[in-house]
Amino acid sequence: MDYFKKMVGTTKSPPGVSFSEITWSWVGGFLGIALVALSHYWLLGEGSDLTMIIGSFGASAVLLYGAVKSPLAQPRNLMGGHILSAVIGVTFYNLFHDQMWLASALSVATAIAVMHATKTLHPPGGATALIAVIGSDDIHSLGYLYAVVPAGLGALIMLIVAIMINNIPKSRRYPEFWF
User: Fold this and answer.
1) Per-residue b or e along 119-153, where b marks 16 or more CB atoms closer than 10 Å to that residue's CB
2) For residue range 1-55, what is the model confidence (pLDDT) as tens digits?
3) 157 vs 153: CA distance, rounded Å
4) What are all long-range contacts of 34-41, with beta carbons under 8 Å and residues at least 24 apart?
5) pLDDT in tens, 158-167
6) What is the spatial distance between Cα 41 and Cα 52, in angstroms, rounded to a whole number?
7) With contact defined as beta carbons under 8 Å apart, do 127 and 56 qualify?
């Protein structure tokens, strides 16, 4: 019975945020994703799959621009979480590409464990690891370069935008910590 009692919750829903907070989150999210997407065209041209913009960056944008004080949104977590998880995902794809279910499960589970062990927990990192396994042929052809471009460079672009945008309003400060 105690097991089911845990599912009731212990706190109330957090209060809503101000219109200003919503606006700055929107501006940061727009600019962060726009610059990552534009970097794809600057680096790779228009004819290829949008390999610079991986799906996990959408979740990173929510943390970086919408939850700026969260430990999960800090630079160490953003960069370490994406880069380490990318390496892990590529490794498990290389080892088990003929058993995608196994490569998928191992990449996400191992990414979580490694992020915990290195104090770089960033939930979108789990998606970065998974994308390395289930991504397109363009993603697979990158091999370990996937950890640098798009995972590392895209995260760095979003970090620069977060530092610039999140420090404009007096009500925001980013980052809370670096290391």
Assistant:
1) ebbbbbbbbbbbbbbebeeebbebeeebbebbbbb
2) 789 988 988 889 989 999 999 999 999 999 999 999 999 888 877 766 667 899 9
3) 6
4) 35/157, 35/158, 35/161, 36/150, 36/154, 36/157, 36/158, 39/153, 39/154, 39/157, 40/150
5) 999 999 999 9
6) 9
7) yes
